[in-house]
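Reopening this one. Same input as before:
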Amino acid sequence: MDKAAQRKARFAKPASTPGLVSRGDAVLSKAEQETLFEQVKASPTPYKVRSLREAVIASGPSEFGSEVLQFSVKYAIDSQEIATLKSSLSYLLTNVHPSYPLENPQYFQSLYLIALSFHDLEDAASHLDGSSTLRAYLQAYATRDIARWVAVIKGEKDKTRQKLMLTQKKLFIDQARKLSVAYKKDGTWIEELLEFQ
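Same output, byte for byte:
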């Protein structure tokens, strides 16, 4: 098997992933999860992606899984190994919190970091089984489509979800300014966001 085939096999997504995965007959304890995570962080660079995925599988959808996701995103950005890590991150997006990511602000911010790093949110969003509102919201964020971003928030009928979206408002504005987005084309959008509660 050549290197390309080996890499493809390594990151192949399983047909299904149980909500909580165990080793043998016993679910990993908190102490075992923490030990596993320390082993992941100590892994040599070529094995880190595989280790991250295995750690998520072993821990199931838990706080530990969120911690692994955060670490994996940071590693992806720091290492700049975008092509190598992308498929593994997609796997993590699918399996850490398969329910609506909006319920987990930490997870939601991780999606932002992936979008900012990869500039390819379409790929990330395609792995989510969440609502079309979430998909549109994230895509608008990634493409800096200010008008669409505001429209999605205002059109969200679920007030809880809308409130969670608004918690990301400052992050969006700060990133837009930092990246020199041409927001002056629509001089009212910042004020409109700041006033919209």
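So the earlier flakiness isn't reproducible anymore. For the record, Residues 131-197 form one domain.
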